[in-house]
Structure to design on (330 residues):
């Protein structure tokens, strides 16, 4: 019997792709028709990704596509007034966070196409999914670029890898700002010592909506994150915006549950120079959100090299990788 399996099952009205690694007691579940959301990952008996109590919540609860699992963000976070200008073109996004913000884009709520799933001893268990902007005329009406996202989730040796490519198949350069929003299941309500380690370089001053209010600087918090910071008292709905160290091409962040003897490790590559920290108030969780640009970057008055503002040219392909796993130390 193979240690790896990949299967499609029906769960609460959704077609779910289930990846399994029996040797490491690891399971990942992805819902392609709900924004390709990696809504569950468990390893070694530990719940890593926060999942909704019921999948029906993804249909019925306001903003549910932003609140559980691993939403895919394009653009990440908020666009003030839903409006910005890039290369002389004005973009007006729908105000999906009334009264005046666009929040997180729409690909985290739209259906993705499953291209392939399977399992082999050499590759592990995997699923490949795709989202093409040109198939969504309502999005193309305000973002007229043929962008194609192709994601591969792969469970191998107990680690969950995400390899992604984003391609501009159109003729015009498109504004590019991308991020991920994993909700990590953290026992805030147990009175435990919780430690966070992030290879942070600087911290940006931000509002409670993560809008930037000034230039970044080295702060006591950003300096301490390299060695580890206790986050047990991190405020609900609190957020921080960080610039990450440039030297390390594969940065590893850790959430450590000292009393329980394990940590969640999250590795991201150089495509993500920024990270938002966020603690929700609707669940016991903490988010480490890697971004290619800071919140509302296209509307900021700072140099693009600082904020991450960039375009994706015609026929250009952007690739990225992340990896997620659990380490035990007891």
């Amino acid at each position: 019997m193979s240690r790896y399996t990949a299967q499609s099952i029906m769960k609460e009205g959704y077609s779910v792709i289930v990846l399994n690694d029996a040797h490491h007691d690891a399971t990942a579940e992805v819902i392609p028709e709900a924004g390709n959301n990696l809504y569950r990952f468990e390893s070694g008996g530990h719940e890593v990704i926060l999942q909704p109590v019921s999948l029906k919540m993804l249909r019925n609860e306001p903003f549910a596509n932003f609140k559980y699992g691993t939403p895919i963000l394009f653009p990440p976070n908020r666009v003030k007034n839903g409006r910005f200008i890039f290369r002389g073109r004005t973009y007006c996004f729908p105000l999906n966070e009334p009264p005046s913000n666009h929040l997180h884009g729409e690909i985290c709520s739209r259906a993705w196409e499953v291209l392939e799933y399977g399992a082999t001893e050499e590759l592990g268990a995997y699923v490949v999914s795709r989202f093409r902007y040109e198939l969504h005329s309502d999005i193309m009406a305000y973002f007229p670029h043929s962008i194609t996202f192709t994601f591969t989730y792969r469970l191998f040796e107990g680690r969950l890898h995400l390899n992604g490519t984003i391609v501009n198949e159109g003729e015009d350069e498109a504004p590019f700002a991308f991020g991920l929003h994993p909700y990590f299941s953290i026992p805030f309500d147990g009175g435990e010592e919780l430690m966070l380690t992030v290879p942070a370089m600087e911290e940006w001053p931000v509002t409670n909506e993560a809008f930037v209010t000034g230039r970044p600087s080295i702060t006591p918090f950003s300096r301490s994150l390299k060695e580890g910071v206790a986050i047990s008292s991190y405020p609900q709905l609190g957020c921080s915006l960080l610039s990450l160290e440039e030297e390390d091409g594969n940065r590893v962040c850790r959430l450590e549950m000292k009393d329980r003897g394990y940590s969640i490790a999250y590795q991201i590559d150089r495509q993500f120079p920024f990270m938002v920290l966020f603690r929700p108030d609707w669940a016991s969780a903490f988010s480490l959100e890697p971004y290619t640009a800071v919140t509302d970057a296209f509307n900021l008055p700072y140099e693009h090299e600082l904020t991450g503002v960039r375009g994706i040219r015609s026929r250009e392909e952007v690739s990225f990788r992340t990896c997620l796993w659990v380490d035990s130390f007891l």
User: Anything to note?
Assistant: The chain has four helices and 27 strands. The domain at 4-328 is CATH 2.70.98.10 (Beta-galactosidase; Chain A, domain 5). The first strand starts at residue 4 and ends at 11.
